[in-house]
Amino acid sequence: MFRLGDKVVSAPRNVELDQGKHWRARLGFILMSTDLAAESDSFAMVPDGVAVHIARLKTDDYTTNETLARHLDTMAETAARIQPDTQPDVISYSCTSGSIVNGEAAVMREIKKGAPYSTPMTLVTGVVDALRELGAKKLVVGTPYLDEINTAEAEFLTQKGFEVLDIQGLNLETGISFGRVTPDYWKRFALEIDHADADVIFLSCGGIRALEVAEEIENMTGKPVVTSNQAQMWSCLRRAGIKDEISGFGQIFLRPGESLWPKK
Predict the structure, then answer these.
(1) CB–CB of 79/17 below 8 Å?
(2) Distance between first and last Cα of the chain
(3) pLDDT digit string, tens, across residues 122-139
């Protein structure tokens, strides 16, 4: 029995240690402070043995090209706060429009400044990875964005070699409103913008609730559906060496990611 004034002396033990709960890989994501969807989406998709670590980037709740450009100001600092003692394998900036406006290379440089031990990624890099893995040529794109951002996105996708048959935005102004659009509305919107010649339907934005209806839209249209969070998670997992097939989130998770690596 312990009495006041006693000193605790623990008995020596042979403690059993292993590689921890997240022994396969660790993924870090830089989310907007206004994002209502990406965190829960990431935890829903991640397989056993893989960590998801989240840091939030202070964000103006008014989404324009100008406000997105400010994300670079604190990108390195935010990356440095994501589990530096366990060093994630990959750290990704989880904003589609911000990745486009700021440029993939500029974002990756800032992440690398803050977390030089991790592979830097952007969400839109993951989108392009997924589209190429699926062999997409012709796209229809649905977004919550203002048309100034939609124009930048259409230009980006065209420069990456895709034909954008149509891109339609909801012209919402705030990240909070992005996250309040219902999954059922995203399903109806996807069916509305679909085109007979489209290879893939892309629902763009990390802050929207499209992931949970992606597979349902695939079943209804007979074509792959890519969502921002789904594509980002798939690409980050593959880049970390995790090739699990994951059900319930679209066809892309049946793909091993061979297109990510140069042919030998």
Answers:
(1) no
(2) 67
(3) 999 999 999 999 999 999
Q: Do 25-123+230-257 and 126-229 have matching folds?
A: yes
Question: CA 134, CA 128: separation in Å to the nearest integer?
Answer: 10
Residue 88 tokens, joined: 């994630």
191-203 burial by CB neighbour count: b if 16+ within 10 A, else e? eebbeeebbbbbb
The phi and psi torsions of 169 (rounded to 5 degrees) equal: -115, 160
DSSP secondary structure, 123-186, as one string: HHHHHHHHHHHTT--EEEEEESS-HHHHHHHHHHHHHTT-EEEEEEE-----HHHHTTS-HHHH
CATH 3.40.50.12500 is right for the domain spanning 25-123+230-257: yes
Which residue in this structure is represented by tokens 């990356």? 79
Indicate whether 29 pLDDT > 50. Answer: yes
- Confidence check: pLDDT of 247 > 80: yes
- The CA–CA distances, whole Å, from 46 to 27, 28, 232, 244 equal 9, 12, 11, 10
Question: Domain spans of the chain?
Answer: 25-123+230-257, 126-229
- How far is 6 from 206, CA to CA, in rounded Å? 56
**C-alpha to C-alpha distance for 149 and 144, rounded to whole angstroms:** 10
Kindly indicate the confidence band of residue 258, based on its pLDDT and cuts at 50, 70 and 90.
confident
Residues 6+ apart with CB under 8 A from 116: none
Q: Report the top-level CATH class of 126-229.
A: alpha beta
Helix-then-strand count for the chain, H and E: 11, 8
